[in-house]
Amino acid sequence: MSGxxxxxxxxxxALVVALTGPPDVRLLARTHVDLVGHDLPAQxxxxxxxxxxxxxxxxxxxxxxEALSSVEACFAELMRQHPTVAVGxxxxxRPVPALDxxxxxxxxxxLAEGQxxxxxxxxxxxxxxxxxxxxxxxxxxxxxxxxxxxxxxxxAGPPWxxxxxxxxxxxxxxxx
Length: 176
Hints:
Elements: E1 3-9, E2 13-20, E3 27-34, H1 44-48, H2 53-81, E4 86-90, H3 99-102, H4 106-127, E5 132-135, H5 143-156, H6 162-175
């Protein structure tokens, strides 16, 4: 039976679920992964905003590397327990301008934070040899998939927040 991982990334963490594929959709696991440890700021770009450009570049790169390692470890653990054929990410891919431009614009700081965590998740999936599928969290979603994710939450019990639902829906999308 094939399964998928679904991920709802945030600025410094992500909710990850493992599902079996249709027709028998079941929640196999749900977990939370901190992308970086306490030695790094939760928001790399916000912390980099006051630094000289070379230091800002080093901070963002270090943050990205640690986030990638954290997600790779999470995926490896889940994949040891559950056969996985794809990863669904509840996020939209958006282009991020050059770092110097990002550091001068507060709205771009937020855009870049989201894309940095999304990129760590996508790269971890790619390194694991898994195709990546994206789900727009604010888009229109298949009513059958929405009902399936609600049913998964009823069976799983709390917590089953919006991010869990989006991660599960992303996993279903990845399974096609």
